[in-house]
Amino acid sequence: xxxxxxxxxxxxxxxxxxxxxxxxxxxxxxxxxxxxxxxxxxxxxxxxxxxxxxxxxxxxxxxxxxxxxxxxxxxxxxxxxxxxxxxxxxxxxxxxxxxxxxxxxxxxxxxxxxxxxxxxxxxxxxxxxxxxxxxxxxxxxxxxxxxxxxxxxxxxxxxxxxxxxxxxxxxxxxxxxxxxxxxxxxxxxxxxxxxxxxxxxxxxxxxxxxxxxxxxxxxxxxxxxxxxxxxxxxxxxxxxxxxxxxxxxxxxxxxxxxxxxxxxxxxxxxxxxxxxxxxxxxxxxxxxxxxxxxxxxxxxxxxxxxxxx
Amino acid sequence: xxxxxxxxxxxxxxxxxxxxxxxxxxxxxxxxxxxxxxxxxxxxxxxxxxxxxxxxxxxxxxxxxxxxxxxxxxxxxxxxxxxxxxxxxxxxxxxxxxxxxxxxxxxxxxxxxxxxxxxxxxxxxxxxxxxxxxxxxxxxxxxxxxxxxxxxxxxxxxxxxxxxxxxxxxxxxxxxxxxxxxxxxxxxxxxxxxxxxxxxxxxxxxxxxxxxxxxxxxxxxxxxxxxxxxxxxxxxxxxxxxxxxxxxxxxxxxxxxxxxxxxxxxxxxxxxxxxxxxxxxxxxxxxxxxxxxxxxxxxxxxxxxxxxx
Amino acid sequence: xxxxxxxxxxxxxxxxxxxxxxxxxxxxxxxxxxxxxxxxxxxxxxxxxxxxxxxxxxxxxxxxxxxxxxxxxxxxxxxxxxxxxxxxxxxxxxxxxxxxxxxxxxxxxxxxxxxxxxxxxxxxxxxxxxxxxxxxxxxxxxxxxxxxxxxxxxxxxxxxxxxxxxxxxxxxxxxxxxxxxxxxxxxxxxxxxxxxxxxxxxxxxxxxxxxxxxxxxxxxxxxxxxxxxxxxxxxxxxxxxxxxxxxxxxxxxxxxxxxxxxxxxxxxxxxxxxxxxxxxxxxxxxxxxxxxxxxxxxxxxxxxxxxxx
Lengths: 309, 309, 309
Known about the structure:
homotrimer; 309 residues; mainly beta; disordered C terminus
């Protein structure tokens, strides 16, 4: 699993279908470090000095348990609160449940996951599979508004056996007027070769509504982003609300049907994109070389003030 | 049906699958009273002096008709406008169609429902089943902005035969910076015992965008909140847009996989939750007793100013 | 296909199921004129002097290619950028990719579409079918904020073989506090006879969040708006987020189960509807005559200031 290596899990580096999933019900333990970063930011990292904004993508297979020893190296109260998975009140990450790290404190948070289970009426209570996320819930306010504003967030994926694994993986966090706490032209440029299977994990935070748009690629608005069969009724979209606390993910084949080039992803709220909520998805040629015109587009992007002209 | 008793329908009090549904096409009649309440609020109630904010949950089985005699006991123009069901223009509840109650007036509104019907191309025109809502459409403005702002709203559920009935039912209305026209710590504390099947009916109103988040529970983003089969492609979520005029509902098993405790539900727009758009979902032990730590969490909630600190 | 005639395609005028689709993989060429309009607006049109706000609905069958010669008759930089379909970087419509029309310039944009294709894990990469839209991406800012604000937008439908064709088709663009750049009572009044199959194409633009609500009609929140089978788990709704860059569409039978009359469609954000984001859907009697009370409702609508009263 791609991001698995970041968690210390040995996984195949190539695209595989879920048969490669480890045995169900495995418990893994990681240490996560919350650290102060330049510019007043904070981040989570898997080793001391490696905190990033956003934090590392954490992945689980349905049925697995993840034990996280969170080391708070900062002088602020903070925590880690996950979406989508199971946790007891003492792993809630909220001051309400007295679940947070004081400055300097290390605390264990336990996240469990499960497969869907039959219910009455031929229905199934949902399992944990999904494109989720985690974030601070204690810095600044009891809802972690300070921590979220300063970068304490990241992607969390729970996969179902049989899910397809990507070759590239990108995390996009829309937060107020920024992407991953950055403004264009300093926003991330994601890169893949034409034909590679890439995975976007999109997360909304903060106080404003946003819509995520990706040029020249589209996805099914369901759990995987792909149609699950010829009769799957799901809408296919290329623009989706990414409002505070929501997340979604999807896989696309880079440049499929459109070719290599520099494709924008951006918030489609017009004054947000004009204000700098835009980044680049560089699809290289299949051999990894830069396609014609790509450097010129990148230069244009970097030279542009992203203001009304 | 749980809320059915509130409508004068004799229904089983325990969880049953839809076999317990009454005969299709039944017509029921209720009287609803619109009343002024303390604090400048208004509410709907099923008997004089029993108006609440939100109003009672009204329920129908697909195919049923509900006749509502709305008694306007106030000195304001008002009405009742439903989402999801069928009604003629004279039951539209809008001043546009001259469909409202003058002060002191009683007026009958008729809501019909239907099952889905085959269309060309092996498709089906949707039936009425859904988690809907009703609200005033005449007080203050021709869109009922005054009535909605002051509490004239409630949940409306149309069930399909075979649907599972809940043991507990909670209505959550996000309206501007409030939940059910209240601000924390005065927001509703919903209660259930570990293992009970609870149903959330979530409704958005007013002028601001919101997102509803429930801690430690998740649901499928489809009609029922449960997966409708092993191949159901629906996304599973725990955070969803709850913007003006929208509604959704879902059932979860209280504390399933996470245990009893005090779980927050809140708007995930950070300054909304900080401002008091947060309430508690108390999951008691299976025997109804209070779990360890719950009282301390409740006390913390009530002592908290819900402002930035 | 209804709007097909607007594109110079000979198609049946009556409702047909997709067997009437032309051969897959057809390439069509149209000329589109971007023109200045009174009141500072701009529009796209299929012939000189025929630009409208919104522009014409463009339609394709999955597999088709559309070549658009865009004639810029204005003194502004502008372009056309589609959602949902395939295009190379030189048809991106963005200044980033040097893809726009200078004043007076004619430029060809090529949009391709495709059917869904099998992927690993019994999944399918999504095809192009959907209710999409197109808009300027170059006027005013690098994101076309000026062009979108002034009317350079329209609907784009890619149909799958087997899709049902409508008898009437309406485009609704929510943009800031306007519908199709108009405010009530000057918003569009859509008309159909009771029983006709009508199609709504809903598009969001600008800088504000909106929700689209249609009185007395509902749709499935999936690709077609209809349930795709008895086990389709999709939510049925009558109110949906219509935020910048998003689009959706659905078909309903005019007045089905509710009868003829004047039905509102409006933004459900209360101060938006109060401010004039409301229009009328006039369902005539089956013979086309005006139903009782309809003229009075229309008169009420036109006499109303749409302000708080």
